[in-house]
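ok so heres the complex, two chains, lmk if somethin looks off
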Amino acid sequence: MKVEIQNLTKRFGQKTAVDDVSLTLTSGVWGLIGANGAGKTTLMRMLAGILTPTSGRVLCDGADTRALGEAWRDMLGYLPQHFGFYPEFTVADYLEYMAALKGLERDFAHKKIEELCDILSLTRVYKNKIKKLSGGTQRRVGIAQAMLNDPEVLILDEPTSGLDPGERVRFRNLLSEFARDRIVLISTHIVSDIEYIAAENAIMKDGRLIDVGTTEQLLRAVEGKVFTALVPDGLLAQTEREVRVVSLKNEGGGRTLVRYVADAPLLRGSEMAEPRLEDLYLWLFKDERRQEDV
Amino acid sequence: MYKLELKRLLKTRSTWILMASALLVTLVLCCVNIFGAYYYSYDGEFFHALDATEMRRIVTASAEGEWTPERIRDVFAQIAGVAANRRGIAVEGETNDNYEIVTGGNNSGAASIAGYTNTFLRSIPQVFDVYMDEIRPDMAAQYYTQRKAYIEEVMTLNYGPAAAEAALRLDENTTEPFYYEFGFGTGSDTASTLPVSLFAIAVVCSIICAPVFASDYSTGADDIQRCTRYGCKRLGRAKLLAAMTLSAVLYIICTAVFVALTLAVYGDDKTSAQLALDALVLIDIDMNGVLVLTLIAGFLSVLAMTAFTLWLSARMRSSVAVLAVALAVAMTPTFLVILLRESALGDWLRLLLPSGGLGLGTGMFVDIQIGEFLTIGSFAIWTPFVMLAAPAIETPLFALLAKRAYVRHECA
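and the predicted structre for the whole thing:
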């Protein structure tokens, strides 16, 4: 299966949210990386058919998804950034409602709901009202609805926000297994999630696609640009102003291990480190305001 | 999909609370109608609630039956006889209240005419344009002829010859002589309470329907639904139909309760509407017919208001904004009646709104008796017809617009 995004552009008045994006998605997990306002959500919404592009098109195995209509939606699973649900619904009500909207047979739907509730640890809260569940559990309900119809194309916008570390690990494993012969497109700020499971990544900035490739290919851009150095605690504030800090780790004895990205080592005693997606993110988006969750 | 959507709407607690409120308002108005009735007999005795209704039924029994010109003449002769000895008999004509006062020095004489004083006699001075005391028995016997002349005169004066011609054409089918019997139309205040009840139902329906689409847009639920097989056109259609069904069922339940209780206490009413309401009622209809027509007009208007609210909901993201606009439209006919009374523009606006058949001081019960016409050049149409036609056209129109708006909706 192949989904081709061809010259997709979306303008809202004077603002261009997505600017001439072309990308071919093949089976596997795809990570969509970009700062806030980069155009990830708009791109995903166009892909899901919720938003009409200003220009360009999306093809599924050569057929325009707009012309495919119901057939395209049958292949699709979508979890938006803000998961909206009916407050009066229990998990069971909601999943049954969504299964009906997806046109699933009753028996298949029940079996699938049971299976997903088990995998996503929703069995215990099956009869609870969604509005009374924690943010993470609500997110898992959202993931379950997206996967109800065994979609061939799964689009998940920030699926891991609100999940605890254990849930994230289980979710990553589920997706890895799920994406064997399907396309899964994930956008997240938690780049470590993508690092573990994404076969390919697409990086967006200011509405444009600036790079596409496997994690290894992309990391080549920051090879030799990631360093660690031990810095006395007293100099930390100054160090943070001077270099692009990725992480800080208190090593005890009044010293902190600083991981940073730069063209060349800037701190005394710097050692080169193995680059990760997080480093690449900070390197590429050095002009952006630093996100708290990166 | 339709069943699913209906089930979803009924799962919402606020829907049940609102539906119960509509029923409660209906019951309260019904009780006001029944238990708020009072009656002062000719000898000064006071009756209240069901006793008052029973007294009215007994007193007006003498007025039942057909009112031939001969009978009108005889009754006026009888009244003239009583009036010659009276100190005061409240037969001033335009008493539209739910009670009557007949007092005087000659109680037995007053008692003998008590049954007529709140019936047919009210419309006699109206068509002759004189006070009750000035009507002689022979003059009264000319009532039916004079009524035609009165209709022609009023219509020509207010709306021109085209309207007068149309009015007389409508009135051709009116069955004469008119008929009187005691029932909900002549014995109760249904004309005042039923329109309030219908208005309350329309408001509740608007509140229930305001979030149908708008809430899904604002919460993001719509984004998920739209990506499913049936999440676009079919879901839009199902949401529309479910909301319309709910409004229709709520209307039917509430009005059925109102009508059942009213009829149980007062009984039905075959009184000619020209007797019970006004000489300007232009069609052949009795009070049972007026009630049915009022219920049909109310039903069409409630459906039109529901479809209009759903259209707003499909276009806007905020349920509160939808509700504000819908309520403003629901109340506009009432304000127009107050602010632009007897203005052609006011009447056009009032009747072309989806809420045209609803409101206080407006609605079928009012329009059927005031003899108003909407005119364009030489074309004239009686307002009750517009009241029925406008919502019948607007309901499918707004429903289609709502579906179109939903299918085309895109959240930025």
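quick notes: Chain A has a mean pLDDT of 87. thats all i got rn
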